Amino acid sequence: MTAEQSNEKKPGRPAVPLAHRTLHLVQITDCHIFESEQGILQELNTRRSFEAVKKAVFESGDNTDLLLATGDLSQDGSAASYRYLAQQFDEFELPVFWLPGNHDAVGVMLKNFTGINIDASKHIVAGAWQIVMLDSTIPGEVHGCVAPSQLDFLETSLRQHPDKHALVCLHHQALDTGSDWLDNKGLDAADRLLDRIGQHGNIRAVLWGHVHQDFHRRINGVEWMSTPSTCVQFKPRSKTFAIGDEAPGYRHLRLNSDGSIETRVHRIDYLDLALDRSP
Ligand SMILES: [Fe+2]
Questions:
Q1: Which has fewest Cβ within 10 Å: 25, 50, 213, 277?
Q2: Cβ atoms 66, 7 nearer than 8 A
Q3: Between residues 42 and 100, which one has the greater pLDDT?
Q4: b/e for 221-249, b at 16 or more Cβ within 10 A?
Q5: 199 CA distance to ligand 1 centroid (A)?
Q6: What is the distance in A from the centroid of ligand 1 to the CA of 26?
Q7: Which residues of 118-185 form beta strands (DSSP E)?
Q8: What pLDDT does 259 receive?
Q9: 208: CA distance to ligand 1 center in Å?
Q10: What pTM was estimated for this model as a whole?
Q11: CA of 101 to the centre of ligand 1 (A)
């Protein structure tokens, strides 16, 4: 989808701010919601942990202009999981932009993850910034790839606004995390994306989900970040599959008009994490 966020306020929908000021974002990722209200992942009820993270966003008191949902929103691709998520995300009363993960069913998502605040646009222009949402999924596969069509979309989007700082979002990790089992399910041909990013001096950050952990490196002036899942965490730097002890969470980002970024991961601290740790 190539529609650019118009910034025209639709009835009942909050507008993305146009002013040249700091843009405040919340990234929510890897919710893994099931069709059933009782759906559990590693003994964790994913609806319950999502709702705890949502409450933490509300209670943070941070300014937020828009939300980014970066894939694996559903565990089973069911219509009911997306309808639940749509209702939940609409309660933020903020614009919500999304991209799919390997667990998502895009067709079902387009029909059911809809609401007054949910926007399927993949190029968002707001203030001094633009955000490009890439689809890195390969149908039926866990690992991902940025297809030539998605690289073309990135290029076309960036050419429209070479004067604006850019944040690029996708589901799969663009850089290795140091966990062999997870990096084997990462982004195929990542060099194609890295090369493209290196060619554009206005890309300030790359943001993803999939790895269920906090990761942040600054390389050649670009911030590379992943964000904890709203449910189960993967143990950082584990060579084989392992569940982490960290709590579910989300990331808050401040995109400043000079291109700098301030960011922090928030974790909830009041959920009983009696997890099943088997693969
Ligand atoms: Fe995930």
A1: 277
A2: no
A3: 100
A4: ebbbbbbbbbbbbbbbebeeebbbebbbb
A5: 29
A6: 17
A7: 118-119, 123-126, 129-133, 144-145, 165-169
A8: 96
A9: 11
A10: 0.91
A11: 7
- Length of the chain, please? 279
pLDDT higher than 60, residue 172: yes
Beta carbons of 119 and 82 less than 8 angstroms apart: no
Q: How far is the CA of 167 from the centre of ligand 1 (A)?
A: 21
Q: What is the mean pLDDT of the chain?
A: 91
| Span from the CA of 71 to the centroid of ligand 1 (angstroms) | 7
Ligand 1 center from residue 127 Cα (angstroms): 31
The answer to whether 44 touches 245, Cβ cutoff 8 Å, is no
Interval between CA 155 and ligand 1 midpoint (Å): 27
| CA 103 – ligand 1 centroid, Å | 7
Q: Does domain 23-267 have CATH number 3.30.70.260?
A: no
pLDDT digits (tens, 9 = 90+) for 239-270: 999 999 899 999 999 999 999 999 999 999 76
Can you list the alpha helix ranges (DSSP code H) found in the chain? 46-60, 79-90, 106-112, 148-160, 180-183, 190-198
Residue of 133, 61, 69 lying closest to 95 (CA atoms):
69
Residue ranges of domains in the chain: 23-267
In whole angstroms, what is the distance from residue 93 CA to residue 65 CA?
10
Residue 41 three-state SS = strand
The one-letter code for the residue type at 92 is F
From ligand 1's centre to the CA of 238, what distance in Å? 16
Other Cβ atoms within 10 Å of 200 Cβ, number: 15
User: What is the whole-number distance in angstroms between the Cα of residue 278 and the centre of ligand 1?
Assistant: 16
pLDDT, tens digit, for every residue of 35-49? 999 999 988 899 999
